[in-house]
UniProtKB/TrEMBL annotation:
Its cofactor is pyridoxal 5'-phosphate. InterPro entries: 4NH2But_aminotransferase_bac (IPR004632), Aminotrans_3 (IPR005814), Aminotrans_3_PPA_site (IPR049704), Class-III_PLP-dep_AT (IPR050103), PyrdxlP-dep_Trfase (IPR015424), PyrdxlP-dep_Trfase_major (IPR015421), PyrdxlP-dep_Trfase_small (IPR015422). Its EC number is 2.6.1.19, 2.6.1.22. Keywords: Aminotransferase, Pyridoxal phosphate, Transferase. CDD domains: OAT_like (cd00610). GO terms for molecular function: 4-aminobutyrate:2-oxoglutarate transaminase activity. Pathway: Amino-acid degradation; 4-aminobutanoate degradation. It is an enzyme of class 2 (transferase). Belongs to the class-III pyridoxal-phosphate-dependent aminotransferase family. The lineage of its organism: Bacteria, Bacillati, Bacillota, Bacilli, Bacillales. This is (S)-3-amino-2-methylpropionate transaminase. The keyword Transferase applies. It comes from the Bacteria.
Length: 447
């Protein structure tokens, strides 16, 4: 059961009896392809805390895979949803329009980077935003090709899988995939040759991309390049600024649209409302979702007005796209983020996490890399004797955190990266308790 803590509290062996019964029912009724990271059934959630059906309390350092930047059940968001639910739940914006859709589109156009007129379309999920961004780009340019990057993740739909660069569990035996999609190499600074400076490495990676446009995909046939400013599922990899700017400029030179996939990096996670601003770029299109509405399903594509207007009426959208509940939740989230300055808070959280692991790195050679931008942080575990990814060690460590009351997830194509997506409303006390538990588990596992 471990030592007593102020926040994390494990009442007995996991999973508890109520959870075990729900697991039995889940096994009988839910498709096997629906994965679960932990045997965890949540009864309630608030801020950075999850309480399961057996009364165990967990510190949530995963944030529902980055959807909880504003925390679980923010009071203003709950109230906004309750008020909207009393008016109407759904009218379909294509049939009966409503002001919150327009208001959110206006707000996103104002917030998104870019010194040009912008418009937005609201949808349901991140993958849906990616699909529509590609449709818009192809319609505007009249060209078919779409370039994504190695280790990138863009969803589980057909096109999303095609643009994603991880076979298992996302693509195995799911093909054939969408045509006219290409994958360019993406930097991995952790593996930069020791003989190469950071600037030289960035230029090397940019040269690789320029060569890619000669050897793999002709610029004249490319509608867009889609890039995560910081790779998420790929391992929280922060690329060199010079590389991102260079790709962006090459797109400009060749008339290729630049799509920033900010589904995970958006809404304060990296210390700015959108990560693109860290790199000094103004994407033509931006895809958004996850923390936009504190867990309610909504997504968006925001971009240059002339590009967004390329599709004809009826060619983009959907029955539930930009639901009234999602719109009012998103507006309340954005208000909270601005009012509480959660972007600045993300910087403080990320700094503390990296400081903590920088110290542990000196103690544990298996801790190969500590990295991140804002509160989008990760640690990568590498076998110090072989130099190979220590995936089993990372997986066992994450399970140990769960047994002690901290929820964390792995990432990376090898599964040897542990990523941090704490709600940005987490208190200093909660953050420190979680880091203490992590240190305790690491010491036990490395002994």
């Amino acid at each position: 059961m471990g030592k007593e803590r102020k926040y994390a509290r494990i009442e007995g062996p996991l999973p508890g009896p109520k959870t075990a019964e729900l697991l039995r029912r889940r096994e009988a009724a839910v498709a096997g392809g629906v994965g679960n990271n932990f045997p965890l059934f949540v009864e309630k959630a608030s801020g950075a805390l999850l309480t399961d059906v057996d009364g165990n309390v967990f510190l949530d350092f995963a944030g529902a895979i980055g959807t909880m930047n504003a925390g679980h059940c923010p009071p203003a968001v709950v109230q906004a949803v309750q008020r909207q639910a009393e008016r109407f739940l759904h009218t379909c914006f294509h049939v009966g329009m409503y002001e919150p859709y327009v208001e959110l589109a206006e707000k996103l156009a104002t917030l998104a980077p870019g010194s040009f007129a912008k418009k937005a379309v609201l949808l349901n999920s991140g993958a849906e935003a990616v699909e529509n961004a590609v449709k818009i780009a192809r319609k505007y340019t009249g060209k078919p090709g779409i370039v994504s990057f190695t280790r990138g993740f863009h969803g589980r739909t057909l096109l999303g899988m095609s643009l994603t660069s991880k076979v298992r569990p996302y693509k195995f035996q799911m093909g054939p995939f969408a045509p006219a999609t290409y994958k360019a190499p993406y930097p991995y600074p952790y593996y930069r040759p020791e003989t190469m400076s950071e600037e030289d490495y960035a230029r090397f990676c940019l040269d690789q991309f320029a060569d890619f446009l000669l050897t793999e995909a002709a610029p004249e046939e490319l509608a867009a390049v889609i890039m995560e400013p910081v790779q998420g599922e790929g391992g929280f990899i922060v690329p060199p600024k010079l590389f991102v700017q260079g790709v962006y400029e090459l797109c400009r030179q060749h008339g290729i649209l630049f799509i920033a996939d900010e589904i995970q990096t958006g809404f304060g996670r990296t210390g700015a409302m959108f990560a693109s601003t860290h790199f000094g770029i103004e994407p033509d299109l931006i895809t958004l979702s996850k923390s936009l509405a504190a867990g309610l399903p909504i997504s968006a594509v925001v971009g240059r007005a002339d590009i967004m207007d390329a599709p004809n009426p009826g060619e983009i959208g959907g029955t539930y796209g930009g639901s009234p509940l999602g719109c009012v939740a998103a507006l309340a989230v954005i208000d909270q983020m601005e009012r509480e300055n959660l972007c600045e808070r993300a910087g403080q959280i990320g700094l503390r996490i990296r400081e903590h692991f920088d110290k542990l790195q000196k103690q544990y050679p298996i801790l190969g890399d500590v990295r991140g931008l804002g509160a989008m942080c990760a640690v990568e575990f590498t076998d110090p004797s072989s130099g190979k990814p220590a995936a089993a060690f990372a997986a066992n460590l994450v399970r140990s955190f769960y047994n002690k009351g901290v929820i964390l997830l792995t990432a990376g194509v090898h599964g040897n990266v542990i990523r941090f997506l704490t709600p940005l409303v987490i208190t200093d006390e909660q953050l420190e308790e979680g880091l203490d538990i992590i240190s305790e588990s690491l010491a036990e596992r490395y002994a």
